[in-house]
TrEMBL record:
Compartments it resides in: Cell membrane
Domain ABC transmembrane type-1 intervals: 85-265
Pfam families: BPD_transp_1
Name of this chain's protein: ABC transporter permease subunit
Chain segments annotated as transmembrane: 21-37, 88-108, 115-141, 147-166, 178-197, 203-222, 243-264
Gene3D superfamilies from the UniProt entry: MetI-like (1.10.3720.10)
Similarity comment text for this entry: Belongs to the binding-protein-dependent transport system permease family.
Alphabetic keyword roster: Cell membrane, Membrane, Transmembrane, Transmembrane helix, Transport
Keyword presence, Iron: no
Family matches, as PROSITE patterns: ABC_TM1
Protein source organism: Zooshikella harenae
Amino acid sequence: MNKPPLVIGLHASPPAWLKRLLILLPFVLVIVVYLWASDARLAENPADKILPSLSQMGDAIQRMAFAPDRRTGDYLLWQDTLASLTRIVIGVGSALLVAILLGLNIGLFVGFRSVLLAFITMIAMVPPLAILPILFIAFGVDEFGKVALIFIGTFPIMTRDIYLSVIKVPSEQLVKSLTMGASSMALTYRIILPQVLPRAIDSLRLCLGAAWLFLIASEAIAATEGLGYRIFLMRRYLAMDVIIPYVAWITFLGFTLDFLLSLLNRKMFSWYAESKK
């Protein structure tokens, strides 16, 4: 008689079909619990807005995504998505570039480390949402203030992560490269940079959740379009049939960005993916 597959424990090795089932299990449980709770509330009060039914949310999605707004003529979901994605891509993209530049130089050169490491560590300890009013006062409530919040909230963490990756490079590799005639620039950007780039992408993936938080917060306070703006606008009317699909859409966008970055890492730096197995 075959033993059931081991699921829990250090030596667990469930088959592929069981792994897929286990991945789906928590999602199915959440959906089942929601549907049960929604059905119970709507049975007691059909006008309840807290837990809308799937049909109510479907109508809201149709209205927001596939019907032009009566006032502006825009398709609001896609307009909000474009505005939010533009802000977050610019914010985390610029943060990654600055983090790579600073992290490499801080990790390799003692002078840079002495000047910048303590300062960047201090910046990383500042709660970004606490300085949101300062950013809006200093830079206004236009796009720059929102992008600046995402940048300030993510670049110190990525910089420190890349710095820690650089200092793990064996010193023998540095000495050997310099002995063979490599210049400081060549050592930094042709030898060390390719080794830390996959870790930089992983660091970006880890910062995406925080970046979305800063984006939603800034859009909620001062914006005329964006996913966060729309959620907080609908909050005034208890329009959970719009809010819940918007939250689910943000989650899907975040998951998609994370998946694409992971795929990029595997395709461009296969050796890095192998080293983590």
